[in-house]
Amino acid sequence: MASTHGAAEQAQVLVASNRGPVSYQIDEEGSLHARRGGGGLVSGLSAIGSDADSVWVCAALGAGDREAVRRADGALLPAADTGGQRVRMLDIDATVHAEAYNDIANSVLWFVHHMLYQTPMEPVFDARFRRQWASYRAYNQAFAEALAEEAAEGAAVLIQDYHLALAPRMLRELRPDLRIGHFSHTPWAPPDYFRLLPDDIAAELLGGILGADRAAFLTQRWADAFTACCQVVLGPDAAAGTRIGVHGLGADADFLRGRAHQDDVAERMTALREEIGPGPDGSARRAIVRVDRTELSKNIVRGLLAYRQLLDDHPEWREKVVHVAFAYPSRQDLAVYREYTAEVRRVADDINGRYGTAGWTPVVLHVKDDFARSLAAYRLADVALVNPIRDGMNLVAKEVPVVSDAGCALVLSREAGAYEELGGDAIVVNPYDIGGTADALHAALSLPVAERAERSKRLAAAATALPPTRWFLDQLDALRG
């Protein structure tokens, strides 16, 4: 397939992801304003650099993005907007994108891999699902065609995540000369749960990823689950032609430590300390910190229930500890997420109403996203609570020990991917066990200061062993190798 930009401009390295490194907003005068993305994924994938040999293919996610694509008129986005990277943004039909992204990727594939279904009532794979699946297929096809157009002969293509599970096979059919990798940022479901999917859909998903030369995962556990699914669904040798790799994404220590000591973070720390307040004897209260999106797998409600259990079981902690809970709304266009966010608020209010005093608010809950405030909470955390039901990695577990001023204890779910790297120095919990998590919080609060600091130091070292840029380049090197 010929490129729209000419052979001389075709890329040697390509990245594909639903969300790209830039987004656009339209102001009242009709002017477009570009905003660079953040987070570990953007940091890692940005290692492709800004030279003419690389292109990032992503979807237009809003009206501003779509207008930017229209004004670009088939060209790559302006380098001034994208940090110098060459970006091709795809204006996929809005209905197709909504069905692919919300109805399939986030309401089916996410639920399967995080094992979130309440199976007496869901899932229901009916005719409506089949129509939505057709959109998911069309969405993946659009990416495959764009990558085929932009890629030079023998180029390396790294396709990201569950949104684009079919794209490797589709791209292979268009461009057999390419070296194709796929990386999964979620867990991978074990075979028995994966087979909730209709048999043909399960086979299509696995076959899509197996179109890659190399399929990579955040932990060995998820890689092994994928291989097991291939063997059960497709046959014992189905994955023989695809290399399987593991790359555990780490925290970006230099960025985090630098950003965490800027003035706006210091201002947020002052405000948080005022909200936490002093204990009855005037000493500083302890802070149990969590920072999450209100995403079903993050297990925020059970974390709050465990904190309530702590206050019941260990009344000596009353008025001496505050649970600083940042629960930033996520996927609020889906009813189940709106309901979950409301339940988080309800439980927090219940705890405050039941135990709070004139001088003590047991739960300090914030639901408006504020990265500077998150970093402030990281810095003052005595305990970090990271208790997901299931998580591909969980960068919060890695970021808090890196940023913490005095060292913090980490209470960590054994179902987080980060458990494989951090479990030895964390206090590990079964995320469903409220009493066990309450006991873990008590143990974490009771750690001697010296032991807490030493554990935190080892956690930070493990958390930064594979920073985002290295994580990406290791994948690229392995694909090329």
Structural classification: alpha/beta
Main beta sheet:
7 strands, parallel
Q: Please report the number of helical segments.
A: 18
Measured between the Cα atoms of the first and last residue, the distance is 26 Å
The percent range for strand residues is 15-25%
Strand tally: 15
Using only C-alpha atoms, the radius of gyration works out to 23 Å
Strand order of the largest sheet: 5-4-1-6-7-8-9
State the share of residues found in helices, binned by percent.
Answer: 40-55%
Give the overall shape.
globular
- Mean pLDDT across all residues, rounded? 93
Low-confidence stretches: none
List the defining traits of the structure above.
about 475 residues; alpha/beta
How do you describe this structure in short?
By secondary structure, the chain is α/β, with parallel strands linked by helices. The protein has 18 helices and 15 strands.
Overview of the structural elements:
It is built from 18 helices and 15 strands. The protein is an alpha/beta fold. Helix 3 (94-113) crosses helix 4 (127-150). The longest helix has 24 residues, at 127-150. The chain is globular and about 70 Å long. The model has no long low-confidence stretch (mean pLDDT 93).
Q: What is the secondary structure topology, with strand pairs?
A:
Blueprint: E1 11-16, E2 22-26, E3 32-36, H1 40-45, E4 54-59, H2 63-72, E5 87-90, H3 94-113, H4 127-150, E6 151-160, H5 167-174, E7 179-184, H6 191-194, H7 199-209, E8 214-217, H8 220-234, E9 243-246, H9 253-259, H10 263-276, E10 286-293, H11 300-313, E11 321-328, H12 335-355, E12 363-366, H13 371-380, E13 383-386, H14 396-403, E14 409-413, H15 419-422, E15 427-429, H16 434-446, H17 449-463, H18 468-480
Helix pairs in contact: 3-4, 4-5, 7-8, 10-13, 11-12, 11-16, 14-17
